[in-house]
Design brief:
heterodimer, A: 562 residues, Pyruvate-ferredoxin Oxidoreductase, domain 3, Rossmann fold, 4 domains, six-stranded mixed beta sheet, 16 helices, 19 strands, elongated, B: 317 residues, alpha/beta, two-stranded antiparallel sheet, 30% helix, globular
Chain lengths: 562, 317
């Protein structure tokens, strides 16, 4: 996927590329991730687009030199905004040959990918290891990798007695040379990473950084230049789950109830750490069902509450989701999707909950579903979600996925506003002539009495009910409730703006998970127009609700002629 | 009702609540159902304690007993089968000012919601949990419940229930952080009222199992106990449920039981010849989760915004 097709060169002779993907792979505990994160941070500070994603083995400490045990990091650097991890890497640094197999077999590399590999295994005392190394290199060569065997260990030994702990910074130095990174920024980054360690540790790592930089100057021939595009504006370097955690805090959420589930759990790690800063509380419930029940209870009592989950957890929460729709309880559900069916693919990228979220509950359960396309949206959509949940009195779902959850990228630093935060629950007297569900005929929206409000007493129920929240036994109130809940979505639809078109429309893909998709009529119109003008295909446009009147217009419109 | 102050003036409260202020309408339970008695007892406590109706939240699951909130003129939450406790915990978590009561049944609490039950005892949030135990699924028409006696014929086990029943009291005695475990019967309204009142006054989760007749399906299960006052064993102690003088003449079968004595509590809970009623176990020193979950309440907007900026700084470049 290299973009170096033009082979134009910068002033220093480096080949100008639009983007490069670099991987560092090692056994776990060798610091590959630290080196990659530093490279990413330095690049972000220089103004490049960056996306980093960690390569994590399934086990916590897999055996060394095992094929499935690769631990490391992928860093994608570009001259524009980067939105994902990309396809095959352009350059990989490997600390041993076995871990590379795992990545190779996952299609992470292509013929021509440059491999910089530790060569100490060629002289290992164990004949098995020597043989394995020779065999692997022969295979890598056959598969077309451009191999450079480097004495990383030996070079590091000139500066430290334990190269296993310092090799990563040597590699960072090399990569800084190859990609023309600002060495002073790398030094600052090291000083920051090791700020809790002694000056001696920082000095040693600085030495190794410089050694790698210098070594590369003579040993490796290639240099690349990736033009920065924005080094000025304030940014946060953050992944989608961290952004969501901060987004909830900025949205005035004060209670998040969750149960651990990959890949959503790290939202709770961030909240566990940060939530007290805005006075919030993280509740780790006994199970997924209790988590949403707890959040619904807090929401009913007037507190802004959210739950965080993924596929299997979403399935377990389905009954409560129906209740939140039926009884019109504001709630935010942040769903970091994974692959299904069943336990499926916990750590891989799939938007496995899209249809389940749209249609997963019983009967006619109209609900608002929005999906983040970028890490920045993982933050901002939570603010939108809370407003929608309270304005339209019901659950709002924000969908994310593993790509956004684990990718780290610079995003514009949000400017929080006081009005984003939720006010304390209204405790003024309620006009008791107003019903618990005083549905507005035009919008279906109704004001909400909150426990503590004198005169507003009602018993919420998941049973079909009339506007007084009394159990409905006759057809008319049942029909009215259904109509009013559905009408809220029709009202929302009229408030929507057309979706943003990303990219240059050589191929137009529209999907139900995009934000503002409810405006299906306009969306399809615009998508079709874009698609037709680009003479490309318009694929799979889904209605967002079973009640959508535009569904007949949104079936796949693909045909070879257009 | 009216207090006479030191200066001989009358202390007249701005609002005074009568039983009618808690009356949410005609209860649709069967005539003779024990639920009616529980409803009356709770309404009396509300009136006597002058709980403002808007400050009270009755949370329930699904089943006959879970219709309870509909018959109280307070805030209520009639939610999902087995899920009353998580909802009640959520209500309480950030609203310490609300008075939370839970109405649940033997099926709701000991079967579909059993997992939540254990954890609710451990959270020990400040609320009253009334478990209406009629030994049967009533609303769905006579299916075996987890507390149905072995051999009792039901529609799902027409040849008799197969398993030994769960004993809700022994199950909870020894549960980590459980702080209040009591038992009473619906056919002794004085004791029922006094037990619920004690649970309400307790700081922490007051769990009360109410043995309760279903006139339709399990009338015979309790009839022997109901007919013979000596079949009830009143546990009495200064820290326990006070024994009303009204009970003196009829209920002579008593035992002195210190509710901090776990070993004796377990022994008593195992009695099958009599129904021990009163407070089995109480430890008012147990920590309450709502004391933790409420932290941060009332933080100012300025502090929140400053806190956010500090968190952003950790990711800033």
């Amino acid at each position: 996927m290299t973009d170096a097709v033009t082979q134009s060169r910068a002033a220093d002779g480096a080949v100008i590329v639009h983007q490069h993907i670099v991987e560092i792979v090692s056994d776990s505990g060798e610091g590959a991730q630290k080196a990659g994160q530093s490279l990413g941070a330095v690049s972000a500070k220089m103004g490049n687009g960056v996306w980093t994603v960690e390569i994590i083995p399934a086990e916590i400490k897999p055996p060394a030199r095992s094929r499935a045990g690769a631990s490391g990091i992928r860093v994608r650097i570009g001259d524009r905004k980067i939105t994902n991890m990309g396809d095959q890497a352009d350059m990989v640094v490997a600390f041993n040959e076995q871990v590379l197999y795992g990545r190779l077999n996952q299609g992470a590399y292509r013929p021509g990918t440059v491999l910089l590999i530790e060569n100490k295994w060629a002289a290992d005392p164990s004949p098995e290891i020597r043989a394995a190394y020779a065999e692997a290199l022969a295979e890598f060569k056959e598969r077309g990798l451009d191999i450079y065997e480097l004495p990383l260990d030996e070079e590091c030994k000139k500066h430290t007695i334990n190269p296993r702990l310092g090799k990563n910074m040597f590699v960072l130095g090399m990569l800084c040379r190859i990609y023309g990174r600002d060495l002073q920024r790398a030094r600052d980054e090291i000083a920051f990473i090791f700020r809790k360690k002694s000056d001696k540790v920082i000095a040693l790592n600085h030495t190794l950084l410089q050694a790698g930089f210098d070594y590369c100057g003579t040993a490796l021939p290639f240099r690349y230049h990736i033009t920065p595009y924005d080094a000025e504006s304030a940014k946060l370097v953050i992944n989608g789950n961290q952004a969501a955690a901060l987004g909830m805090m900025a949205a005035g959420v004060e209670l998040v109830a969750m149960y651990p589930i990959t890949p959503a759990t790290s939202v709770s790690h961030q909240l566990g750490d940060s939530f007290p800063a805005t006075g919030g509380f993280l509740h780790q419930a006994e199970d997924e069902i209790a988590a949403i029940g707890f959040a619904i209870g807090a929401g009913f009592a007037g507190r802004t509450a959210a739950t965080v989950t993924s596929g299997p957890g979403m399935a377990l929460k389905t009954e409560f989701i129906g209740l939140a729709v039926m009884a019109e309880i504001p709630l935010i559900v942040f769903n970091v999707q994974r692959g299904g069916p069943s336990t499926g693919l916990p750590t891989k990228v799939e938007q496995g909950d899209l249809l389940g979220t749209l249609f997963g509950a019983m009967g006619d359960t109209p609900k608002i579903v929005i999906a983040a396309a970028t890490i920045s949206e993982c933050f901002h959509m939570l603010i939108m979600a809370r407003r929608l949940a309270e304005a339209f009195r019901g659950p709002v779902f924000v969908l994310s996925d593993t790509n956004l959850a684990t990718g780290v990228t610079p995003i514009p630093r949000p400017q929080p506003k006081a009005e984003w935060l939720s006010p304390p629950p209204d405790q003024s007297d309620w006009d008791s002539s107003i019903a618990a569900y005083a549905w507005d005929e035009a919008t279906g929206v109704s004001p909400r009495p909150i426990p503590g409000q004198k005169g507003g007493e009602y018993t919420l129920t998941g049973l079909a009910h009339n506007s007084l929240s009394k159990v409905a036994y006759a057809p008319e109130p049942v029909q009215r409730g259904l109509r009013m809940r559905g009408r809220k979505l029709a009202a929302l639809q009229r408030t929507l703006r057309p979706p943003r078109i990303h990219g240059d429309a050589t191929c137009c893909l529209s999907a139900g998970a995009r934000p503002w998709v409810p405006s299906m009529k306009r969306w399809t119109g615009r998508a079709r127009k874009a698609a037709e003008s680009a003479r490309s295909t318009c694929a799979s446009c889904r209605p967002w609700s079973p009640g959508s009147r535009t569904s007949s217009r949104t079936s796949p419109r693909w045909s070879p002629s257009n | 009702m009216f207090g006479l102050k030191d200066d001989w003036s009358l202390d007249v409260p701005a609002r005074y609540f009568t039983l009618e202020d808690y009356d949410g309408g005609v209860a649709r339970w069967c005539p003779g159902c024990g639920d009616h008695g529980v409803l009356t007892a709770v309404q009396r406590i509300c009136r006597d304690q002058q709980i403002p109706p808007e400050r009270m939240v009755n949370v329930s699951g699904i089943g006959c007993s879970s219709r309870f909130p509909h018959y109280m003129a307070t805030y209520g939450f009639h939610g999902l089968h087995g899920r009353a406790l998580p909802v009640a915990e959520g209500v309480k978590s950030r609203r310490p000012d609300l008075d939370v009561w839970v109405a649940t049944g033997d099926g709701d609490n000991c079967s579909i919601g059993a997992g939540h039950w254990l954890h609710a005892m451990r959270y020990n949030m400040n609320m009253v949990v009334m478990m209406f135990d009629n030994n049967i699924y009533g609303l769905t028409k006579k299916q075996t419940s987890p507390t149905t006696q072995t051999g009792f014929k039901t529609n799902t086990h027409p040849r008799g229930a197969l398993l030994p029943p769960i004993d809700p009291i022994t199950s909870m005695l020894g549960m980590s952080n459980a702080s209040f475990i009591a038992q009473t019967v619906d056919w002794n309204p004085v004791h029922l009222h006094d037990t619920l009142l004690l649970a309400w006054k307790h700081k922490g989760l007051g769990f009360v199992r109410i043995m309760q007749r279903c006139p339709q399906y399990t009338n015979q299960v309790f009839s022997d106990f109901q007919d013979d006052p000596n079949s009830l064993l009143l546990m009495q102690h200064d820290d326990g449920v006070p024994v009303d003088p009204a009970l003196d003449r009829t209920f002579k079968n008593r035992i002195e039981h210190d509710p901090s004595n776990m070993a004796q509590a377990i022994e008593l809970a195992g009695r099958r010849d009599v129904i021990p009623i009163g407070l089995f176990y109480c430890d008012p020193t147990r920590p309450c989760y709502d004391d933790q979950s409420r932290q941060g309440l009332g933080m100012s907007v300025e502090d929140k915004l400053a806190g956010l900026e500090r968190e952003f700084d950790r990711f800033a470049i």
